[in-house]
Amino acid sequence: MRLEPLPNPSPLRSVGVTLLALGLAFALVGGVFWAYGLGPLEAYRTMLEGTLLDPRGWQEVLRRTIPLLLIGVGLSLAFRTQFYNIGAEGQLLLGAVLAAGVALFLPLPPALSLPAMALAAALGGALWCGLAAWLKNRLSVNEILTTLMLNYVAQSLVIYLINGPWRGKDVRGYIYSDRFAEHQQLPVLLGTNVHWPTLALGVVLALLLQLLLFRSTLGFRLRVVGENPGAARYLGIPQSRAFLVVALITGGTAGLAGFGEIAGIHHRLIEPTQLSSGYGFTAIIVAWLARGHPALVLLTAPLMGLILAGGDVLKVALNMPFRIVDVFSGVMLFALIGSELFLHYRLRLR
Amino acid sequence: MEEVLNALARALSFGTPLLIACLGALLNERAGVVNLGVEGMMALGALAGFAVAYGEGGNGNLWLAVPAAMLAGGLAALLHGFVTITLQANQFVSGLALSMVGLGVAGLLGKRYEGLPLFDHPPEGPFILGAIGLALLLAFLFSATRLGLALRSVGENPAAADLLGLNVLALRYGAVVAGGALAGLAGAYLSLVYRPSWTDGMTAGLGWIAVALVIFVGWNPLRAIFGAVFFGLLYYLQFRLQGQSGIPSEVFASLPYLLVILVLALSGLRGQQGNAPEALGKPYRRGER
């Protein structure tokens, strides 16, 4: 066997290889279901019946899609520039912290409350990720490790706040902050948990970042830095500035996801594990599937939203640990990066 | 004096899994392959070790538990090797995927062992001494043996090594699988000796700290001993000072992670990255510069 390079692979090949990789991933996860003692077909049927074939299931998928969409569009930009932000989880939490801080302690006219919370959240996420970019640029510290470590720090920060200075007056058992006022809560689609303004914001951001990446000078520079750092140096495009820009954008969108979760669903700052069920990690697959196109996140975010909602169904219906979502994420990521060789090469039997 | 000795003993005890995992990661990084999946491989090793030691209702085999954990870690690393060495995928992302899969699979399959106690468990002394011995062995391997030289050349300049007739792919596969086996062993130390029990998420970021430690110690196995004891001491202080001072416990909980960032920044300040193997993180493809 040998590999034969394909000079001009067709876009159709990319779609085909990706679908094959996803198929392989679902088959492998089926093996994990089997090892757990559950028929793979039964598991997949339960997931589908509880999500797509159920009216309430649809809402769950949509609700899960919102944070994945917001984080995913930022990450697709970051990965394209080869800035590996693995800390969206922590940036989401920081966004939630700052938004909650504004809601709880900043007296504002009601009309300004929500925009101020959103702004604070984006700022919080951006700074948390910007710190990693700064360390990478100044001290060449690997951003994968820093962003990941900052996740743990953000978790401790949230717990400290709701257990200490921000502890709610009516807390028994689970800890949380006081409840936000009515005007500090995002409107939802009638009878659901779908906070539509955040969903709309995600769609707009996906299209905007797509335009930025492919129709602007800044976007061109980011792409050159990501695809050919040597050429970027030759063209005088500073790599460090590109990293900082994408770090602020990707951190900012993750912060906005945190704002959406607390202003749209929980209406208070709550424990980190309840606030985010691993959105920051699942969004990595969302972004990787989109292969560096922010607009494609509009398709890939619902897919992972479906898997998160399906994980919920398995947990409720069959008492299966939510860890199954990590298995899905990891196996899909393996299959995707493993298949990338076949985008540009053809396997020939000699 | 007694207090100091006690602190040192606890630091060694806690530093041991860090040291073992760090040496594993160091081994495959010297051969040019980064594996960020240490956290996941540790979780799998911890579960495999515990499952074999526990058996059906506590009558498992303690002697087989350690090899089982190393096998689990090694097999998981083999997956990373296949994706990054044969399929030439991005090593950082593959390691991340391995962490997710490892934590996920261990969490799923470990559900039935959750909260069960292990009455009969191995002493920690042999593990501590073994870990230090392993560090000395690796130092000797890299500085004084042909195999060590071959591994290092594959990590520094795989094209030249290939030209000299070394089997780059085989050496890298070997290093990656051995590194994974050590990560599995580190996990087994947690579930068999340190805790002795299994809980989902019991690795608590230790695998990531081990990866950072490799950079901190400049890819030097001997310095890894001191790095691991240093972090072990920090964990000891975290438990010791909790509740005694007026400082909130969350500060202590986040201290190891903040410290990782700090030591990485310090390593950057000292230009430590210059010690990294030249071809670290780059897949080797014959006929390409």
UniProtKB/TrEMBL annotation, chain A:
The chain crosses the membrane at residues 12-36, 91-108, 114-135, 144-162, 194-214, 242-260, 272-290, 297-318, 324-343. One of its GO terms (molecular function) is transmembrane transporter activity. Signal peptide: none annotated. It holds the Pfam family BPD_transp_2. The keyword Transmembrane applies. GO terms for cellular component: plasma membrane. The keyword Ribonucleoprotein does not apply. Keywords: Cell membrane, Membrane, Transmembrane, Transmembrane helix. Its main location: membrane. Coiled coil: none annotated. It is found in: Cell membrane. It is a multi-pass membrane protein. This is Branched-chain amino acid transport system / permease component.
From TrEMBL, chain B:
It is a multi-pass membrane protein. The chain crosses the membrane at residues 7-27, 33-55, 62-83, 89-109, 129-151, 171-194, 206-239, 251-269. One of its GO terms (cellular component) is plasma membrane. Pfam families: BPD_transp_2. It is found in: Cell membrane. GO terms for molecular function: transmembrane transporter activity. It comes from the Bacteria. Keywords: Cell membrane, Membrane, Transmembrane, Transmembrane helix. Its main location: membrane. This is Branched-chain amino acid transport system / permease component. It comes from Meiothermus luteus.
